[in-house]
Amino acid sequence: MKILILCTGNSCRSQMAEGFLKYFDNTLEVYSAGTNPAKAVHPKAIEAMKEIGIDISDNFPKSVNQFLNDEFDFVITVCGGAKKNCPVFSGKVKNRLHIGFDDPAEAMGTEDEILSEFRKVRDEIEIGIFEFYKTNIKTTETNSELQFCDINAKNHCCSLEIISEKDIKSHWDNAYENAEINMLGWYENAPKPSLQLIHDCDLDKGAALLNVGAGATTLVDELFKLGYKNIIANDISSVALEKLKNRIGAKKNNIKWILDDLTQPNELDKIGQVDLWHDRAVLHFFTHIKEQDAYFNLLKKLVKPNGYVIIATFNLDGAEKCSGLPVYRYDKKMLQEKLGYGFDLIEAFDYTYRMPSGETREYVYTLFKRKS
Q: What phi, psi does 285 have (nearest 5°)?
């Protein structure tokens, strides 16, 4: 299938849209062009896409004239505003669509404010282009089986295989069924960075501590040893939670276990407010804006005023894939944007984690406090 994405300068929106479509399906023949092409792709478009693991740095603006003799299945215009204000493709095309987005290149302000606008438009383009892909292309394909990474392989946390369907629960059940906990790529024998940040919170021993994506964690063991009495452990995988319970033994009766999906919660949103939200395992797997919004909406619902949030996730130099899944990488500023002005950043640092295989992964650890 051959697709052309068209705007005026071919430096921002159409380039990002081309990047997303190729990322969704590398079998598609995707091009982008402009009626008045700029000299280069906007550096902030490159930066914003790089943050989510899509490299468009080798792209360059092209004139629509070079495609006039080609035939396309779809031509998509992505200019903001009314369709009538967009360029018109006069070549051969089976289907014409307009999916409009504001031009982030028109943003004013500081460098951070301009980059924030590029991220906003990038996320809108992802939603719009994925909806086009799902409606017009993906529906013509048959469902394919999940491709699970070999978690015992040396490079299992950066597998080149990407799961083709969102049966995430089955994926994680499979991962935990097929390996010993202490051989998983995300296993920590001693969660020192998390413990240090929890210590800095100076919480009462009766404080409600929620560990999302508990999975293979040893953090609950350590918290129990430190005398915390209100520990809540969550995961989407029933296999992971059962293995964790079995390892902990009799102490499991002192921990509240919640099997739930953070993006579609059925139980977590009923537990009441917590003093601490801790996540070292989950956020980076939410690559779509709707998933991220659901995650942060739940977090904001559960964390008390003056409560704390610890998020450790792959940083901008971190792995682009983990356990066969694409990941969304962050820095402290991006996490602050997601949390909003109701949370103050208390502490942040980069951290190199060494996997059981001996390889390393780059994380950013952050501690936020909710305003009263």
A: -85, -10
Determine whether 86 is an active site residue. yes
Q: How far apart are CA 347 and CA 17, in angstroms?
A: 35
Residues 303 and 149: their CA atoms lie apart, in Å, by: 34
Same domain, 117 and 190: no
State yes or no: is 12 an active-site residue: no
Count the residues in the chain. 372
What distance in Å separates the CA atoms of residue 370 and residue 309, rounded to the nearest whole number?
8
160-190: per-residue pLDDT in tens? 333 433 477 788 888 777 767 666 667 677 7
Catalytic residue among 12, 79, 158, 322: 79
Identify the pLDDT of residue 248: 81
Total Cβ atoms within 10 A of residue 87: 17
Q: Name the catalytic one among 12, 86, 158, 201.
A: 86
Q: Provide DSSP, 107-137.
A: --SSHHHHHHHHHHHHHHHHHHHHHHHHHHT
State the DSSP string of 215-276: TT-SHHHHHHHTT--EEEEEES-HHHHHHHHHHHGGGGGGEEEEE--TTS-SSGGGS--EEE
Domain that holds residue 252: 168-370
CATH of the domain at 79: 3.40.50.2300
